[in-house]
Design goal:
Blueprint: E1 8-9, E2 12-13, H1 23-35, H2 38-51, H3 58-68, E3 72-79, E4 82-88, E5 94-100, H4 109-128
Antiparallel strand pairs: 1-2, 3-4, 4-5
C-alpha cells in the first residue's frame, strides 16, 4: 500500500482531514451551526467547504482514531512538545501512551501536531497493543 507523500511527515501519517471525520463528528458541527440560527447556517456552509480540507484538530483526530479502534479515550494531555493520552480497553483496563517531539525542524505548529498524532498511532500505541483488549 503506497501513501501520498503529502500524507506523511518524517515517516508517520499526518492527521486526517476534517472532511474525513466520522458522521457523528460532522453531525455535531452541523448542530452547532443550526443553534447559531439562519445566518450561522449560511456562514457555516460557506466556511465548511473551505474547512473540509484542513486537518482535524489534534484532540479530535486522536479521539476519532481511538473510537474507530474500539478504545475509549479518557484523558487528553497536550503539552508544548508532547501529547499524552489515557484510554480504556474493553476489559476496563487503563493505558497511557505518550508522543514526544524529537529535535527535528518542524516548519509550523500544524506540522508538529501532525507528527505527534502519527507517532502516537504508528509507533507508541503499537508498543502497548499486545495487551489491549478491543471492544467487539
Amino acid at each position: 500500500m503506497s501513501r501520498n507523500l503529502d500524507e506523511l511527515i518524517y515517516g508517520v501519517p499526518r492527521r486526517p482531514r476534517i472532511a474525513d471525520a466520522s458522521a457523528s463528528a460532522i453531525a455535531w458541527a452541523i448542530a452547532g451551526g443550526l443553534i447559531a440560527g439562519p445566518i450561522g447556517v449560511l456562514i457555516g456552509g460557506a466556511a465548511g467547504n473551505a474547512l473540509a480540507n484542513q486537518r482535524q484538530p489534534l484532540e479530535m483526530a486522536i479521539r476519532e482514531y481511538f473510537a474507530k479502534s474500539g478504545l475509549e479515550l479518557i484523558f487528553f494531555y497536550p503539552a508544548p512538545r508532547a501529547v499524552k493520552v489515557t484510554f480504556r480497553d474493553a476489559a476496563n483496563e487503563y493505558w497511557t501512551v505518550e508522543s514526544v517531539l524529537p529535535d527535528l525542524p518542524f516548519p509550523s505548529p500544524e506540522d508538529a501536531n501532525d507528527w505527534l498524532y502519527g507517532n502516537l498511532i504508528a509507533n507508541e500505541l503499537p508498543h502497548v497493543a499486545p495487551g489491549i483488549r478491543r471492544a467487539s
